[in-house]
UniProtKB/TrEMBL annotation:
It holds the Pfam family Rieske. Keywords: 2Fe-2S, Dioxygenase, Iron, Iron-sulfur, Metal-binding, Oxidoreductase. The keyword Repeat does not apply. GO terms for molecular function: 2 iron, 2 sulfur cluster binding; dioxygenase activity; iron ion binding. This is Phenoxybenzoate dioxygenase subunit alpha. Its EC number is 1.14.12.-. It comes from Pigmentiphaga humi. SUPFAM superfamilies: Bet v1-like, ISP domain. Residues 31-134 form the Rieske domain. The gene is pobA_1.
């Protein structure tokens, strides 16, 4: 089955997101997460790579994060190795200084007029949901579309790098059926009849509803261009310890670093009482130590290359993430969708491709694209709350662990 219904667009159009590409133009119309808040301390700068371009991310003395161009226009030094001064950043090489809009405000040993004539790009930035987001498109950014969590819990974030194109892992969000097989080894094996998965396009996204064979119903909201909000069972290592709640209100954001690599930012609300917090924090610290000792990307690449068997890594603290890694990276760095043979289990994947193609076609032809509204009240809120209160996780220990 062809992966596109429009001969002027191919599957590569939604994979390639570098500057000037139609996919890149589409992605740049949206706020993109670029860093976890906790990875950017005050008065520090970081180099970041997003959508095939490099930038400088820094946090001003007042606590606000900013994104400006990567390099100093004097002789090209990377600004992230410089100093944050107030709300500005100073280049380490010869001291040129820029404000957060990218305007040069000082050139030592030179005139103010020379400084006023120099600038680098500056990008709108916001900090929400435990993440820093930036807008890389033209004109004013859209309203921030992702509402805060409502349960007044603790916000926990993670970021995972995958060695494949971002669209592969976003397709996975639309592919609920994969859980029955990808996570069969020991993570999250919850069979679902494809006929009991439905999709409804709304003003803010696509609502995916399902009823699992266990009777558990679930509602996820797929938010274009590449995000999802859904209840997620607590990951393996914490679930085994019964640390924290069994389910978490979760956003996943898929962001290309370049065309063959991407980041998945995860932000979750952990609803936990003050009494439980100290114990939970101890478990979480242990979990992070285990996770650091067994990096998902390293283990995933070793399994895909044949150097390691998944069966020999069943004690991995993020087994579910590792299973997803090897399935998605196992498709290749950029899967050739012209070779797909789609089936009735791929309803969501087909719909995602149709939606992206619809929007890319409009963009390419200079026609209006859909302005997705910010997500308001959560659909099926009562049912979702019931899932978030659910005691059983559905996460099983793998056999032999
Ligand atoms: S290279 Fe930045 S001030 Fe010279
Ligand atoms: Fe998965």
């Amino acid at each position: 089955m062809n992966s596109t219904d429009d001969s002027s667009l191919t599957h590569l159009d939604y994979c390639l997101t570098g500057p000037g590409t139609v996919g890149g133009r589409y992605m740049r119309r949206f706020w993109q997460p670029v860093c976890r808040s906790e990875d950017l301390p005050g008065e520090r700068a970081l180099p970041i790579r997003i959508l095939g371009e490099s930038f400088t991310l820094y946090r001003g003395e007042g606590g606000t994060p900013y994104v400006v161009g990567q390099r100093c226009p004097h002789r090209g030094t990377q600004l992230s190795v410089g100093w944050v001064e107030g709300e500005t950043i100073r280049c380490r090489y010869h001291g040129w200084r820029f404000d957060h809009s990218g305007q040069c405000v000082e050139i030592p040993a030179n005139s103010a007029a020379f400084a006023a004539s120099m600038r680098i790009p500056g990008y709108p930035t916001v900090e929400r949901l435990g993440l820093v987001f930036a807008y890389f498109g033209e004109g004013d950014p859209p309203d921030f579309p992702y509402p805060d969590f409502v349960g007044h819990g603790m916000v926990e974030t993670r970021v995972q790098e995958l060695g494949c194109n971002f669209f592969q892992s976003y397709e996975n969000d639309w592919d609920l059926y994969h859980a029955a097989w990808t996570h069969r080894t020991g993570g999250l094996h919850i069979p679902v009849d494809p006929a009991r998965i439905t999709f409804e396009e709304t003003a803010y996204g696509v609502v995916m509803r399902s009823v699992r064979e266990t009777g558990l119903s679930s509602t996820s909201v797929l938010l274009l261009p590449a995000a999802i909000r859904l209840p997620v069972p607590t990951h393996n290592a914490l679930a085994y310890r019964k640390a924290g709640p069994a389910w978490r209100d979760t956003y996943l954001f898929h962001v290309p670093t370049d065309d063959e690599n991407h980041l998945v930012f995860v932000t979750q609300e952990v609803r936990i009482s003050d009494d439980e917090l100290p114990t939970y924090r101890r478990h979480y610290a242990d979990y992070l130590a285990e996770r650091t000792a067994m990096p998902v990307k390293e283990y995933g690449e070793r399994i895909v290359s044949g150097e390691l068997y998944l069966a020999d890594a069943l004690n991995h603290p993020n087994l579910v993430t590792l299973e997803d890694y090897i399935a998605q990276v196992g498709q290749g760095r950029i899967v050739d969708r012209s070779q797909d043979h789609l089936s009735r289990t791929d309803k969501g994947v087909m719909l995602l491709r149709q939606l992206w193609l619809r929007e890319l076609r409009a963009l390419k032809e200079g026609k209006p694209v859909k302005n997705w509204e910010p997500m308001g009240e959560r659909p099926d809120a009562e049912a979702v709350e019931a899932v978030l209160r659910h005691e059983g996780t559905g996460v099983r220990k793998p056999i032999g662990v």
